[in-house]
Design brief:
Blueprint (H helix, E strand, L loop, with lengths): L3 E4 L5 H12 L3 E6 L3 H13 L4 E5 L5 H15 L2 E6 L16 H25 E10 L3 H4 L5 H20 L6 E7 L5 H4 L4 H8 L10 H12 L10 E4 L5
Parallel strand pairs: 1-2, 1-4, 2-3, 4-5, 5-6, 6-7
The structure holds NADPH dihydro-nicotinamide-adenine-dinucleotide phosphate.
The site of NADPH dihydro-nicotinamide-adenine-dinucleotide phosphate (NDP) has 32 residues, from helix 1, strand 2, helix 4 and helix 7.
Length: 244
């Protein structure tokens, strides 16, 4: 029987690459999205055209009621859930110092990045099948401590804390919980609000001297959710070409 994965924020960027990779690996994939149904349906079409099984589900992950409905729908359609990839996330539109961050921006970033991850983890504790896998997306800005990213980095540092503790709280279930902290990766989230020169400078920072691709990240997720990756648990893996 094929495993079942929920990938949050899978309509584009890193989430779409993860969904397609897991679909190609024979996993049934739920392509979650928030605002772009056409993009999510395209990801589903790409997966099914390649011989995989997928469908798209709308749910704002910051809303715990919507997340519960998402889990209900997946269980109904696929009979259970084995893998949860907490990928959906947002960043501030431009770099903004802590002193200039307003309440609304602070709340929005934490609502999606941190509370959104908490919402799905809390349900996963009861509803993921034994032997499952969880991967949460953090960011290398936690380690880089880049000016202009304070609230975003803090929201992801919280995700890393949830990861380590949740792995221990799931003792006895044979469910691994890990985080991946990508470096600059070529997606809409990364490029929006930056000039070509800024993008170029950031791309040169890792010793590999390029931006990461969504596939670079999806490859590591695929390993973590595989049988071979099962001994990695409670860790945050930096996947960033060596930037930090
Ligand atoms: P994108 O902006 O390209 O894509 C974001 C995805 O998240 C979209 O599918 C979007 O759905 C979805 N989303 C946004 N808000 C919600 C919500 N409330 N509920 C459900 N889904 C939502 O981002 P990336 O692919 O770049 O980022 C993916 C993850 O990787 C994020 O957690 C990000 O913080 C992290 N990351 C990214 C880095 C980068 O350089 N790109 C570096 C380090 C970490 P829709 O299309 O429907 O709006």
């Amino acid at each position: 029987m094929s495993k079942v994965a929920i990938v949050t924020g899978a309509s584009r960027g890193i989430g779409a690459a993860i969904a397609k990779r897991l679909g190609a690996d024979g996993i049934s994939v739920v392509v979650n999205y928030a605002s772009r149904p056409a993009d999510a349906e395209q990801v589903v079409r790409d997966i099914t055209a390649a011989g995989g099984r997928a469908y798209a589900v709308l749910a704002d992950i910051s809303d715990s009621v919507a997340v519960e409905a998402l889990f209900d729908q997946v269980e109904l359609a696929y009979g259970g859930i084995d893998i949860l990839i907490n990928n959906a996330g947002i960043i501030q539109p431009d770099m903004v110092n802590l002193a200039d961050t307003d309440d609304a921006l602070y709340q929005r970033i934490f609502a999606i990045n941190t509370k959104g991850t908490f919402n799905t983890l809390r349900l996963a504790a009861r509803r993921l099948r034994d032997g499952g896998r969880i991967v949460n997306l953090s960011s290398c800005v936690v380690a880089l401590a880049l000016p202009g990213y304070s609230v975003y980095a803090a929201s992801k540092a919280a995700v890393e804390s949830l990861t380590g503790i949740f792995a221990k709280e799931l003792r006895g279930r044979n469910i691994s919980v890990n985080a991946i902290a990508p470096g600059p990766t070529a997606t809409e989230l990364f490029v929006s609000g930056k000039t070509a020169q800024m993008i170029d400078e950031l791309a040169k920072q890792p010793p590999m001297e390029r931006l990461g691709t969504p596939q670079d990240i999806a490859n590591v997720v695929a390993f973590l959710v595989s049988e071979e990756g099962g001994w990695i648990n409670g860790q945050t893996l930096r996947v960033n070409g060596g930037i930090v």
